[in-house]
Amino acid sequence: MNKSYLISEINRLKTEKNAIILAHYYQSEDIQEIADFVGDSLELSKKAQTTDADIIVFAGVYFMAETAKILNPNKKVLLPDINAGCSLADGCHHDDFKLFKEKYPEHVVVTYINCSAEIKALSDIVCTSSNAEKIINSIPSSKNILFAPDRNLGNYLSKQTKRDLILWEGSCVVHEAFSLDKLIEIYKNNPTAKIAAHPESESHILKTAHYIGSTSGILNFIKTDTATTFIVATEAGILHQLAKTVPEKTLIPAPSVQDNTCACSECAYMKINTLEKLFQCLKNEGPEISINEKLRIQALEPITKMLELS
Ligand code: SF4
């Protein structure tokens, strides 16, 4: 289907059905352009909580759409492709995590939002990369903490907050793929550049960074810092918003270990959504996210605690 037809049909259906399109920064440029709101996990959760639309089309991955449904049980929440997973969420299964948690009965369980509703339901509090440090610091120092599912973010938080965290061994396939050797090579050729990295990256990448933060944190850093060249160690979709807001700055995506022609890192799960799937999803009002009410209420509690603290 032709792109301009798809765009006009999506806009028509959106108005007709009182729908809102929420898109993560890692979505394709076409989807970011047609979205009503583009943000990171925390911003999208807040937007999902306050929208008065009848239908939320969540252009992101499954756990994000599921979080929107947990917050909006009476709204129809759609995901353009139901197979949009996440290596962090998919690598932390309920039964395994329950056994893991049972080994640490006295620990406060903090989970990164990149996990399923079943894992959220087993948590005391949820966090995103924007508020994780604040959430950890809100827990009394007398309490021990178990953190899941991202070991890289967990290690970073442990250093920042000077707390020993028990970590679940999960990781993001995109942020773990950055090549330190290639990054150093690029930096040698651009010695005035500043490196901005997401804390899901491995510690050897974080050690090189001038700035470490969430996706929206990286966006703000690049917008406001005086440097003119930046090497960006996160998913390459963020470059679209940056190119629009700071066209005068040079942005270099951090290279991944794997040989690739664009030398950048893209999340295959995020990019599984397309403009055509978005159109079909709005037209057919599916795939729709559904969640058992008992599980929803259990998962809502740690998300609400996070939102109150954010
Ligand atoms: S970039 Fe990583 S954490 Fe984000 S959705 Fe993709 S696999 Fe999951």
TrEMBL record:
Keywords: 4Fe-4S, Cytoplasm, Iron, Iron-sulfur, Metal-binding, Pyridine nucleotide biosynthesis, Transferase. Its cofactor is [4Fe-4S] cluster. GO terms for biological process: 'de novo' NAD+ biosynthetic process from L-aspartate. [4Fe-4S] cluster binds at residues 86, 172, 267. One of its GO terms (molecular function) is metal ion binding. It catalyses: iminosuccinate + dihydroxyacetone phosphate = quinolinate + phosphate + 2 H2O + H(+). Pathway: Cofactor biosynthesis; NAD(+) biosynthesis; quinolinate from iminoaspartate: step 1/1. One of its GO terms (cellular component) is cytosol. Binds 1 [4Fe-4S] cluster per subunit. It comes from the Bacteria. Iminosuccinate binds at residues 24, 41, 112-114, 129, 198-200, 215. Catalyzes the condensation of iminoaspartate with dihydroxyacetone phosphate to form quinolinate. This is Quinolinate synthase. It comes from Flavobacterium hercynium. The gene is nadA.
